[in-house]
Every structure is written in C-alpha cells, then in structure tokens.
C-alpha cells in the first residue's frame, strides 16, 4: 500500500481564461495569467491511498463520497496511469493496476467562484503523480481536470500558454516569476456569498463561445495584454498591473453579459466593492488597489502591503459584521477596525 498527502493553493487570474477550443482536452481560446496564493491560506488537502487490495477507485470530497466516474476525474486517472512509473521503469506495470481511494478537503467554500477546482485538481494530480511516480511536466494533466488547475502547479506568477498543438502538448503552465519576486503584494479575498454558483464555469464559457460576439474581440486583445501584464510583473509596476487586472475582469464580465442567456456573476455587493476600490484609487491619486472577479460575486483585491490596512478599514466600515475573526491573516486587525474613514466616501450607504 502507498499513501501520500499533499496540499495545493488556489490561484486567482489577473488575465482570465474563458472559452475552450477543445472541450475534451481543455484547450483554451486565450492564454491566461494568475497569482498563486500562499500554501497556508486557501488550499486543498488531498490524500491518495493506492493498493493492490482495493477492488475499485473511490473519492470523497469534503467528507462525502462523490462519483468517481465523472469524466474529468477519469481523464486525470487515465493520464496518470499512462505515465505511471516514469521514474522507476521496473514498477510501471504493477503500479498502474493499483486502485486508489482519494480523500480531499478544501478549507474554504467549494464551487462558489473561489477557484476550488483549481486547487482541487492541481492537488489531485500532484498527489497522484507522487503515488504513481510520474515525472516531468504535470500541468498538462492538471489542465484536463480543470483548465485553471494547471496554473496552481507553480507558485508565484504563472501563465497558462494556450499553445497551438492539436494534442494540447504545448498548452501548459509556465512560471513567470516566483513567490519571492514581488514581496509586497497581498491578496484580499472578500467572501460576499459562499453558495454554490448557478452557472458553472464549464457551462458558462461554452455558452459564451457559442453566442457572444464580444468574446471574439477579447481573444484579439488578450495576447497584447498578456505581454504587458508579464512586463508589469517583471518590473513590479503596480500602476500598469492594477489597471490591466481591473480591465481584464471588466471585459470578462462584459463577455458574460453578452452571452445568451446572459450570465451575471457579480451582484450588488460586488458592484459596491468596485465603487469603493475606484474611490480609494482616486483618494490615493494613483492605482493602489485592483479588483478582479472570477465566475462568482466574490471580489479578490490585489494590492501592496501598505494599502491593506487602510482599504480594509474602509471595507469593514461599509460591511460591518458581528462575527468575530472575520478579518483573517491581518496582523494589525485592531488598527484596521479603529481607523477613520477618509474623504470621498461620505455618500455611500453603510450596510448593516
Ligand atoms: O478552470 P475552470 O473551468 O474552473 O475555469 C475558471 C475560469 C475563471 O476562474 C473564471 C478564470 C480563470 O482564469 O481562472
């Protein structure tokens, strides 16, 4: 029997992946780029036990047994078993016949537009790769589980190059800069709704490809935006980085609204956060915080460390909560809650 446990963090795209050119191989119509969160924040933990004594594969997600026959899980298992024993030729045949029991848990809401499929499939593939001794690039295997999962294979800033090959061999993740490169960067994840989303990203992006005219314009814009984004990260140029991040999120949600039937992932609270971030940037006289929204209403804000405390104090003013410990991983949380509201926010209604 072999047992391995691994963890994998979430990644949040600043250039979004939206739309496939090949549904089966999960080949995107545009390249994308994301930041991978710290290992200790939002993450998936997966244990894989492989044994010649198990009679079938099984999987449990957050304590409930799920259907292992799901097409995506099967694709991942097939790919892993094909490459089993890469590291040790002798064990190849025996290993690939072992059945697996998989136990996986997320420490944050699943399927709520918080990139749980990214950390989930990345962790599944990485753990299986350890058990089955698979070597080489495994981002292409993570990709066939869930596209965005391929980017969580690396830390720091990661591009997923769309590639040209029909078999998808060049559609893989590439680290643009490691986790030490931009030390001052922080990410605020604001959970405004942790319910499962109504339109899955799979269904949503398929409808967009079939019905949206705007998506055709977006695919023309993304290559240039990817180049600018990579440069802004290399130069630690926050102004350009922040503007591109917000622009790409806005464009992605415009494509969703242009889809038939229209998809609205953002809600009223999301729009209020957009307004607060825009006002914050006006108050600072430069881009100091950048929002981005995935396929859900929860804002994610990329900002430099010096802006965490002032922006959080404004956000907690407008969205107060009785729940203790709702601001997590912020060292000076007492100061955050005590700060005064700056000018420029007087006319926003406080939500209680
Ligand atoms: O990997 P999927 O199928 O969950 O798609 C993710 C799509 C977005 O989160 C909206 C964008 C992205 O690039 O992560």
UniProtKB/TrEMBL annotation:
InterPro entries: GHMP_kinase_C_sf, Mev_decarb, Mev_diP_decarb, MVD-like_N, Mvd1_C, Ribosomal_Su5_D2-typ_SF, Ribsml_uS5_D2-typ_fold_subgr. Catalyzes the ATP dependent decarboxylation of (R)-5-diphosphomevalonate to form isopentenyl diphosphate (IPP). Functions in the mevalonate (MVA) pathway leading to isopentenyl diphosphate (IPP), a key precursor for the biosynthesis of isoprenoids and sterol synthesis. This is Diphosphomevalonate decarboxylase. It comes from Planoprotostelium fungivorum. Pathway: Steroid biosynthesis; cholesterol biosynthesis. GO terms for cellular component: cytosol. Coiled coil: none annotated. Residues 8-173 form the Diphosphomevalonate decarboxylase-like N-terminal domain. It catalyses: (R)-5-diphosphomevalonate + ATP = isopentenyl diphosphate + ADP + phosphate + CO2. Residues 187-329 form the Mvd1 C-terminal domain. Its EC number is 4.1.1.33. It is an enzyme of class 4 (lyase). It comes from the Eukaryota. GO terms for molecular function: ATP binding; diphosphomevalonate decarboxylase activity. GO terms for biological process: cholesterol biosynthetic process; isopentenyl diphosphate biosynthetic process, mevalonate pathway. The lineage of its organism: Eukaryota, Amoebozoa, Evosea, Variosea, Cavosteliida. SUPFAM superfamilies: GHMP Kinase, C-terminal domain (SSF55060), Ribosomal protein S5 domain 2-like (SSF54211). Keywords: ATP-binding, Cholesterol biosynthesis, Cholesterol metabolism, Lipid biosynthesis, Lipid metabolism, Lyase, Nucleotide-binding, Steroid biosynthesis, Steroid metabolism, Sterol biosynthesis, Sterol metabolism. Belongs to the diphosphomevalonate decarboxylase family.
């Amino acid at each position: 029997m072999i047992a391995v446990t691994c963890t994998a963090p979430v990644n949040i795209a600043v250039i979004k992946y939206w739309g496939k050119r090949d549904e089966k191989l999960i080949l995107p119509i545009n390249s994308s780029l994301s930041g991978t969160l710290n290992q200790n924040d939002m993450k998936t933990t997966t244990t894989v036990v492989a044994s010649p004594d198990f009679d079938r594969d099984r999987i449990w997600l957050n304590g409930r047994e799920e259907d292992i026959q799901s097409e995506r899980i099967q694709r991942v298992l097939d790919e892993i078993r094909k490459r089993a024993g890469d590291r040790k030729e002798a064990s190849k045949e025996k290993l690939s016949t072992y059945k697996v029991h998989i136990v996986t848990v997320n420490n944050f809401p699943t399927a709520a537009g918080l990139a749980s499929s990214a950390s989930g499939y990345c962790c599944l593939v990485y753990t299986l790769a350890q058990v089955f001794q698979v070597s080489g690039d495994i981002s292409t295997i993570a990709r066939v589980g869930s596209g965005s999962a391929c980017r969580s294979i690396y830390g720091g800033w990661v591009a997923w190059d769309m590639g040209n090959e029909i078999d998808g061999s060049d559609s893989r993740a590439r680290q643009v800069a490691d986790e030490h490169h931009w030390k001052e960067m922080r990410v605020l994840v604001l959970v405004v709704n942790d319910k499962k989303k109504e339109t899955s990203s799979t269904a949503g992006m398929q409808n967009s490809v079939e019905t949206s005219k705007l998506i055709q314009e977006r695919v023309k814009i993304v290559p240039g935006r990817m180049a600018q984004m990579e440069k802004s990260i290399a130069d630690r140029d926050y102004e350009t980085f922040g503007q591109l991040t917000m622009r790409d999120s806005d464009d992605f949600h415009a494509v969703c609204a242009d889809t038939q039937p229209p998809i609205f992932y953002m809600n009223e609270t999301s729009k209020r956060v957009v307004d607060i971030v825009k006002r914050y940037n006006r108050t600072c006289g430069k881009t100091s915080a950048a929002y981005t929204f995935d396929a859900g209403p929860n804002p994610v804000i990329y900002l430099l460390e010096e802006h965490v405390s002032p922006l959080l104090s404004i956000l907690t003013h407008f969205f107060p909560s009785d729940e203790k410990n709702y601001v997590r991983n912020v060292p000076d949380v007492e100061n955050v809650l005590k700060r005064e509201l700056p000018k420029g926010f007087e006319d926003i209604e406080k939500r209680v």
